[in-house]
Amino acid sequence: MSQATKLIALDGATISMKERHLMMGGSDRVIDIPIPSFLIEHPKGLVLFDTGCAPEVATDPEGYWGPATKFLRNIRYTPDQVVDRQIKLHGYRPEDVKFVVVSHLHLDHSGGMKLFPQAQLITFKGELPYAYWPDRKARNGFILADLLPTRGFDWRELTEDADLFGDGSVNIIKTAGHTPGECSLKVRLKRGNVILTGDTIHIRPQLETLAAMDSDYDIGEASASIRRLRDMQDSGEAALWISHDPDDWKRYEHVME
To answer: β-strands 162-163, 170-174: how paired?
Structure first.
């Protein structure tokens, strides 16, 4: 069966949040969470999963993110960690990216989308309209300036799981609940399958409790999506790389084949 040839974890910002803001029932323990993006090398083209924070956040987070900085504290982010520069560090050009799969359109995942006008951007149906006009409780999580530059881009909206290249090597998995169009990405490598969870799961304790975030779009659906990924892990189908979990960032090799 076909495989992706390489999975590269791209360094990004780090922010601090209380555990209880990442999962219901969590404690007041402060966790430093990474915000990586992932580059997948495939014979038919490069795939980028998530785009991290906007370049502007590296120099003026409060000015660009506004009220969101009340909840996202201790932001550590340099211009060298912006996703286009990270791609260059690994020997590629941003214009080499053929597909950008965004797990969802929150500010820490969609900030770099505008840097890829030549790519096809992929999300699930319902995510775009919600990002432009979210529920009041969710408005601080979306930044209009991340979205507006991409209105003329080539967007593809999925309605169900999709095999990106038709060969089983890169599969986009619908794991809605955190937002209407939240998704995860399963990548088949020589070493085995890895699922990049996006924000379907924020930290590993959620796998035990299936606890969603209290600010999720649909708490029941979010919990069901956590269960789906846990079942895929427990069955041996794939390992889970939880994007925001600091232990996962330390555990996994940042270049995998």
So the answer is: antiparallel
Question: CB–CB of 107/65 below 8 Å?
Answer: yes
Q: Tell me the C-alpha to C-alpha distance, in Å, between residue 34 and each of 6, 48, 209, 257.
A: 21, 17, 22, 22
**Which residues have a Cβ under 8 Å from the Cβ of 149 and sit 6 or more positions away?**
113, 114
- Residue recorded with tokens 């120099």: 59
Q: Which residues contact 134 (CB under 8 A, 6 or more apart)?
A: 141, 142
> Do residues 71 and 138 lie in contact, with contact meaning Cβ atoms separated by under 8 Å?
no
What is the end-to-end Cα distance of the chain in Å, rounded? 15
Cα–Cα distance, 53 to 56 (Å, whole number):
8
**What is the predicted pLDDT for the residue at 228?**
98
Range of the domain at 68: 6-256
Instruction: Say if 1 falls within a structural domain.
Output: no
Nearest alpha carbon to residue 78 among 93, 66, 89: 89
Q: For the chain, what is the domain count?
A: 1
Torsion of CA 138, 141, 147, 153, to 10 degrees: -90
User: pLDDT per residue over 170-227, tens digit each?
Assistant: 999 999 999 999 999 999 999 999 999 999 999 999 999 999 999 999 999 999 999 9
- Percent of the chain residues topping a pLDDT of 70: 100
CATH of the domain at 28: 3.60.15.10
DSSP-assigned beta bridge partners for residue 187: 170, 194
